[in-house]
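Invent a record, attention on tokens:
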Amino acid sequence: MERTRAEAVIEAVLFTMGESVEVSRLADVIEEDVKTTNAILDGMAKRYQEEDRGISLTRFDNAVQLCTKAEMYEYLIKIAKAPRKMTLTDTVLETLSIIAYKQPVTRLEVEQIRGVSCDHAINKLLEYDLITELGRLDAPGRPLLFGTTEQFLRSFGVESLEELPELNPVQMEEFKQQAEAEVELKLDI
């Protein structure tokens, strides 16, 4: 397929879908290989980055989506409802961090790491579509497994989980020692 036609087809598919589409599926639609499709997408993304464009091409792992540029939001809210703002408390953010780094993870595992119940935090994260149920652990009681969503990637401006900052081993050991000390204090009371 001619490159300009392939771009038009991709643009139409992404606009119509309104959510991310896997690059491999786009490659099938335009009858090209994934490498060629990625090259076409890179060219489209570069043109969308120009100042006179109101949209951008955003990548998530092996998928892409057409999104409105952040600087256009002030104009959008004049005609559409303002998007609901997520408020992530320290507790919710801590729970999200544990899930992001340890996924798939059960509620009990998160609670063991945090040392307190995390029902409210997990419910908030599910409500905000930052985490999702990934299935059930093959163990007694078949507890739910949680992991992050594409909305998580979008909200934190990363394309994949590999872009999350690496955990500092020294700092992790300090956190572990602090948590153990807190547990000992609770047991002494």
